[in-house]
Amino acid sequence: MDTIIDFMLDPAGAAVVMFVLFFGLLILGTPISIAIGVSSVVTGFAYLPSNVIGFVSAQKMFSGIDSFTLLAIPFFVLAGNIMNKGGIAIRLVNLAKLLGGRMPGALAHTNVLANMLFGSISGSSIAAAAGVGGVIGPLQRKEGYDPAFCAAVNIASAPTGILIPPSGPLILFSLVSGGTSISALFLGGYLPGILMGLSVMAVVRVIAMRKGYRTEGHASWSDVFTVIWQALPALLMIILVIGGIAVGAFTATEGAAVAVFYSFILSLLYRLATWREYLDALKTSAITSCSILFLIAASGIMSYVMTIAGIPDVIADTILTFDNPIMILLVMNVCLLVIGFFMDLTPAVLIFTPIFLPIAHEIGMNPVHLGIVMIFNLGVGSMTPPVGSVLFVGCAVANLRIDQVIRPILPFFFATTAALLLTTYVPWLTLALPRFLGLM
Q: Which residues, in sequence order, are CB contacts of 256 under 8 Å at separation 6+?
């Protein structure tokens, strides 16, 4: 026993024990929040007395969620669920059809644009994949599109919703990174999110031309006016919420509450949701929010134990041995992509932000830039097996097995990875808007 304790007292040994135990529990099917807590407490026994570790763990769990900013997450989750139920998705799909209808593979381009629009309002890639995929999938099948190709397009474009604000993961990054400006993070996500969507559309165009997928017909001016008029109230939410946060009219939490109120009123006006569906939206939002908050609470223990064990310093020193910012950024991207393959986005942000933040400071990388690069990486990871949440949702909506979608999604994976590298090595893409509006 003493030998194990001595091994764990070395930061590298503590890291090995913590992460081997953590991933071992995940392989056994343990819920990720429990795996985080157990692996952290076991590692903590090497540094704290047994009669103290329980008290400290409870304290860190409470302090981890004792934040007014975190209230924004359940509000944005609820707003997204109300939009899914209230007929907002179909109006955004119609607008996307208008924008992408003249390109080869029009319905696939529509899927991408609709995910970008819906994601920019709901702040959730999963909500976008489910809402937009459920609406446009039947239309694509009717037009003779390959179902696996359609699912791949939906899955690859849905993560734009966590880059184009509002974004729950960016709020989490702000909290974990010690208060990085949420307004700057939100505005910093626009260009990378659009770049991600355009990279998917580039692949769609190539495949559509090769397979002969047709364009949509020309819409009449009356149809154009009708579609824009119907979608305008939903688009105004972006200006109201993001604009209000950016100019300081209200905080991110208050903006999230405004989003809930606005989406509820809008869905009432559309009259496409029943009261039972509103109750389902509340129930789903409560379950999702509780899962996220419990993850955050458990991650508070892990962050504390990693700090007292010196694990972030060891990992940072190892990566910094490359002594070249270009290589360091490449190593960080590879690490985050691999992490995204095996871990869901929320715990990955909570666990690895404290590890990569000191490295970013050391090489002069702006925290806003780091946040966008991290979320971009983990968004790409969410479309890949074995733990890709967007992959699972997209396959379920399309009624396909995961193995049927793997090959079609590969070109999109490579295209979005190229967009990721461009975002990583061209900080202007992230920092231009926040600097232009004086947020940095």
A: 71, 72, 73, 75, 76, 79, 166, 241
Residue 348 tokens read as 């990955």
SS (H, E, C) 378-411: HHHHCCCCCCCHHHHHHHHHHCCCHHHHHHHHHH
What's the DSSP call for residue 69? G
Spatial CA neighbour of 197 closest among 148, 166, 154: 154
Q: How close are the terminal C-alpha atoms of the chain, in Å? A: 51
Tell me the per-residue pLDDT of 106-156, one tens digit each, with 9 for 90 and over.
Answer: 778 888 888 887 766 666 677 777 777 777 777 777 777 788 888 888 888
Residue 44 CB burial class (10 angstroms; 0-12, 13-18, ≥19)? buried
Q: Taking phi first (over 0 means left), then psi (-120 to 50 degrees means alpha), and beta for anything else, what does residue 11 get?
A: alpha
With vertex at residue 135, the alpha carbon angle to CA 85 and CA 98, rounded to the nearest 5 degrees, is 110
Buried-state track 276-290, b at ≥16 Cβ within 10 A, e below 16: ebbeebeebbeebbe
Q: Which of 229-238, 380-389, 427-436 has the highest mean pLDDT?
A: 427-436
Q: Is 307 left (phi over 0), alpha (psi -120 to 50) or beta?
A: alpha
Identify whether the C-beta of residue 309 lies closer than 8 Å to the C-beta of residue 11: yes
pLDDT for 372 equals: 94
Find, among 357, 343, 354, the residue nearest to 301 by Cα: 354
Both tokens assigned to 80 = 């997204």
Q: What is the Cα–Cα distance from 149 to 169, expressed in whole angstroms?
A: 28
Nearest to 206 by CA among 112, 137, 103: 103
How many CB atoms lie under 10 A from the CB of residue 372? 30
CA distance 105 to 391: 22
Q: What is the DSSP letter of 322?
A: T
How large is the average pLDDT for residues 89-101? 70
Q: What angle do CA 315, 185, 114 make, to 5 degrees?
A: 115
Q: What angle do CA 385, 390, 395 make, to 5 degrees?
A: 80
Confidence tier at 367 by pLDDT (50, 70, 90) = very high
H helices of 247-344, in order, are 252-270, 275-309, 311-320, 325-342
- Check if the beta carbon of residue 72 is closer than 8 Å to that of residue 264: no
Say how far apart CA 283 and CA 286 lie, in whole Å. 5
Task: Please give the Cα distance from 297 to 57 (Å, whole number).
Answer: 9
pLDDT band at 243; cut points 50, 70, 90: confident
